[in-house]
Specification:
Layout lengths: L11 H17 L8 E6 L5 H13 L2 E3 L14 H11 L3 E6 L15 E6 L5 H15 L6 E5 L6 H12 L3 E5 L12 E2 L2 H7 L2 E4 L16 H5 L3 H5 L6 E3 L22 H22 L9
Parallel strand pairs: 1-2, 1-3, 3-4, 5-6, 5-8, 6-7, 8-9
Helix pairs in contact: 2-9, 4-5, 4-9
The structure holds phosphoric acid mono(formamide)ester (CP).
Function: Catalyzes the condensation of carbamoyl phosphate and aspartate to form carbamoyl aspartate and inorganic phosphate, the committed step in the de novo pyrimidine nucleotide biosynthesis pathway.
Organism: Filobacillus milosensis
Pfam families: OTCace, OTCace_N
């Protein structure tokens, strides 16, 4: 029977043959012609980011090691560092990590392969930011002097933190709309009302209420009317202004359901742009050995 249930299923000759074969594989793996391999380590849920990295890898011919925390040795207490070190030892040339701990990457400074941050708690989401920049540039061709209003749960949003910093650096005028409890004093941007924002913005970037990061689930019946993009407010937007949202979105909470797929909406365009941008990011880090995303430090 051709199975390997027990070490005793193999003859001594078989074992020596396997040792020789493995050594040959190690020697041949130094060839530069092997396909590249990476790993996606998602400790928090994701649809878009994970699937678009998977699609980007398919398009680039990059193999992915499979990982799910609930079926991995994380359940036996293995630390993030030891998991990433293991993935590196197994042969991944880069890792994409999403984790609920802000700046989780600070404990990974002994890792040699590139680490691509797919979201660190309320910290940053640099790859989302890059695909958002691509989407904005497709519409406007530049960033300078664009008025970009980021609206919603600013305090808990890694997307807001990455986008506000980089868009401002690129010359856009960034401003926020948020309930006072969700103002982030660490970000030096002005807060305006939603009624002001819709009239003056080139981009209205909506955010989900991040209930998973709140001590108590936020419930507000009139959130859409107070802070969201209603149909009436949508009509006040400038002719070429666009609506963005990193998603997942909550129809009828931060955005009227009918606006999700309206002509101004770039929400699904952002998702398809995510594949191309993540393909570019993977190629960049594989080919250049990795550069730091400087706004995280
Ligand atoms: N925008 C975003 O990060 O979506 P996911 O949480 O589904 O990856």
């Amino acid at each position: 029977m051709n199975h390997l249930f027990s070490i005793n299923d193999l003859s001594v000759e078989d074992i020596h043959q396997l040792i020789d074969d493995a050594n040959e594989i190690i020697e041949s793996s130094e060839s530069p012609h092997l396909p590249h391999t990476g790993a996606l380590l998602f400790y928090e849920p994701s649809t878009r980011t994970k699937m678009s990295f998977e699609m980007a890898c398919i398009n680039s011919g990059v193999n992915l090691l499979s990982f799910a925390p609930e079926t991995s040795s994380v359940t036996k207490g293995e630390s993030l560092y030891d998991t990433v070190k293991t993935v590196e030892a197994i042969g991944a040339e880069f890792v994409v990590i999403r984790h609920n701990q802000e700046r989780y990457y600070d404990e990974l400074n002994q890792i040699s392969i590139p680490i691509i941050n797919a979201g660190d708690g309320s910290g940053e989401h640099p790859t989302q930011s890059l695909l958002d920049l691509l989407t904005i540039k497709q519409d406007f061709g530049h960033f300078e002097n664009l008025v970009i209003t980021i609206c919603g749960d600013i305090l808990h949003s890694r997307v807001a933190r990455s986008n506000a910093q980089i868009l401002s650096k690129l010359g856009a005028k960034v401003q926020f709309v948020a309930k006072s409890e969700w103002h982030d004093q660490s970000l030096p941007f002005e807060y305006v009302t939603m009624d002001e924002a819709v009239k003056e913005s080139d981009v209205i970037m909506l955010l989900r209420v991040q209930n998973e990061r709140h001590k108590q689930t936020y419930q507000c019946e009139d959130y859409l009317d107070q802070y969201g993009l209603t149909v009436e407010r949508g009509k006040l937007m400038k002719p070429k202004s666009i609506i963005m949202h990193p998603a997942p979105f909550n129809r009828g909470v931060e955005i009227d359901s009918s606006l999700v797929e309206c002509e101004r909406s770039r929400i699904f365009k952002q998702m398809s742009n995510g594949v191309a941008m993540r393909q570019a990011i993977i190629n960049f880090y594989i080919n250049q050995g990795g550069l730091t995303y400087d706004i995280t430090h």
